[in-house]
Amino acid sequence: MPPAARRRARAYDPVRVRNALAAQAENVRAAAHRCTPEQLARPTALPGWDVRHLLVHLAAQIDAVPRLLAEPAPTATRARTDVVQWALSTADLAELLDARTRGDAARTPDASAAIDAATEELEPVLEMAVREDVLLPHRFGAMRALDFAVSRLVELVVHTDDLVRALAEPVSLDRYALAATVRVLADALAAKVPGGAVEVRVPPFAVVQCVAGPRHTRGTPPNVIETDPLTWLRLATGRLAWPRALASHAVTATGPRADLEHHLPVLG
Length: 268
Hints:
Blueprint: H1 3-6, H2 14-34, H3 37-40, H4 51-69, E1 80-81, H5 83-89, H6 94-107, H7 111-122, H8 126-129, E2 135-138, E3 141-144, H9 145-167, H10 175-192, E4 198-202, E5 206-210, E6 224-227, H11 229-236, H12 242-247, E7 251-254
Parallel strand pairs: 1-3, 4-6
Antiparallel strand pairs: 2-3, 4-5, 6-7
Helix pairs in contact: 2-7, 2-9, 2-10, 4-6, 4-7, 4-9, 5-10, 9-10, 10-11
């Protein structure tokens, strides 16, 4: 039985998702317009991508919402997927997305103009983008529009953080977008390594149990991992290695089973 059949899906507020998606797209847009030619050529955490590649990729993630909404709805018999399954399947598309981004970058002389166009296409479809009764024809299966919108929040937040580190200057993160991203990545970990032996805490946004072993039901769990939202984001996406996070005290881990090194990343 697939993980989605065994777990209870987390609920996301459509209005808050809509507002967060619009806000984070605008944050990315503003950052793109501030970039100098020197900054556009800076390397990022993604091998072979400079900031311009990253911005072109972000434009594609924003544009994916109106593009999929414009396609014919999937048939009722098509297999379903959700945002957690999407997160766990993204590694399968890594090479394809890398090649597509490089091709798009070669054809896109102005990355900020591409983000402008994508953001302007997004605005009129935002209400439809968070509908729970609309299915989109995603590569991994029929996906609710709301789930796909949440996946765009994850993409925008993860890559905004990549942008922040490449530019060495702040770019705003919408709070709900960050919260949703932390929750999706925590739920993906719980689906990837199900169990109740370890409690992972990312205050103030998420707490999940994972890893097979004895389940603790009372008092303080014997195996607890705790970290902040940005550290969790970087661990869950492979931007930060588990040993380094421990050594820098960005993560606290207590208990003999409190070790996620072999379970990360969860998002490819």
